[in-house]
Amino acid sequence: MMIGKMKKIAGIGLLALGLTVSLATLAPKYVTASDHDDGEVDTKGRNVNLTDLYVFREQDQNPAARQDDLVFVMNTNPRSLARQQYYFSTNALYEFKVSRVAHKDATPTGKEDAILQFQFSAPNSKGEQEFKLTAIVDGKKRSATGKTTPLSTDPQNPTVNKLSLGDTQVSVFAGLREDPFFFDVEQFFRVRAGALGIGPAVGFRPANQAIDFAKGYNVNSIVVRVPRSFLAGHSKTTTFDVWETISVHNPRNGKFQQVERLARPGINEGLIVTNDFLNAFNSIPPTADLSSAAAPVGAEAKKTLKALGNDDKRADALLGAFLPDVMRIDTTVPSGYANALNAKGSPIAGRKITDDVIDITLSVLTNGAVKTDNVSYEGTPGNPSQGHKPLESQFPYLALPN
Question: Are 38 and 268 in contact (CB under 8 A)?
Answer without folding.
Answer: yes
